[in-house]
Design brief:
By secondary structure, the protein is α/β, with parallel strands linked by helices. It has a single domain, classed as Aldolase class I (TIM Barrel), CATH 3.20.20. The protein has an eight-stranded parallel barrel, surrounded by six helices. Strand 5, helix 6 and strand 6 form a beta-alpha-beta unit. The radius of gyration is 17 Å and the shape is globular.
């Protein structure tokens, strides 16, 4: 069974903790991923080489790898350059995800040129496009990405007013892009997950509501203040 078959109709759990979060630890993320696997997850999404290496010691599930890195000349920070792609390919990620929005990339490189070079260098690697709009998803599919994700919808200037999760974006991509569509971003409830699945997507990525207790606590605290 190949990677796409292994994740089909399943739940991928994003196990990430940024440097300013209390669970920032490769050991902790590996245990988070292990717990997700025991709970029935079909895959893991993880950030940073250290986390990925530790997770792979415990969890044999397909892994979507990213490296978040900021560059002064670009708002793109999810696997923005070939340096990050090389590092992820070197640690055995089954899928490498990267920002596929239409925003300026580091050193002024276009997504089309960047991905053409990436595909030439890694012809057998699976690549996932993290998109914010339907148009970006269609463009990413056209240039050869293997999976199209709704990851960045609501987080960019062009999508900040969109309703999230964006079920219309999901269903339209499923209908038109001819690539597996991954629903990701702002899925906080079982009901939202089920609506995403009904749109025909290939798999769903859920992160914060499962693996980021600080954010979960803040949501409950804020809800208490509204009463």
């Amino acid at each position: 069974m190949n990677t796409l078959e292994k994740i089909k109709d399943g739940l991928i759990v994003s196990c990430q903790a940024l440097e300013d979060e209390p669970l920032h630890s490769s050991f902790i993320m590996s245990r988070m991923a292990y717990a997700a696997m025991l709970g029935g997850a079909c895959g893991i999404r993880a950030n940073s080489i250290n986390d990925i290496i530790e997770i792979k010691k415990l969890v044999p599930l397909p892994l979507i790898g990213i490296i978040k890195k900021e560059y002064a000349d670009s708002p793109v920070y999810i696997t923005p350059t070939m340096d990050e792609v090389d590092a992820l390919a070197g640690c055995g990620c089954e899928i490498i995800a990267m920002d596929a929005t239409d925003r300026p990339r580091p050193k002024g490189e276009t997504l089309t040129a960047f991905f053409a070079n990436t595909r030439k260098k890694y012809p057998k690697q699976l690549f996932m496009a993290d998109c914010a709009t339907y148009e970006e998803g269609m463009a990413a599919a056209a240039i050869g990405f293997d999976l199209i994700g709704t990851t960045l919808c609501g987080y960019t200037e062009s999508s900040k007013h969109d309703s999230v999760p964006n079920y219309e974006m999901m269903s339209s991509l499923v209908k038109n892009c001819n690539k597996p569509v991954i629903a990701e971003g702002n899925i906080w409830t079982v009901e939202q997950l089920q609506l995403a699945k009904k749109s025909g997507i290939h798999a769903v990525v859920v992160g914060s509501v499962i693996t980021r207790p600080m954010l979960i606590t803040k949501r409950f605290v804020n809800a208490m203040k509204e009463i």
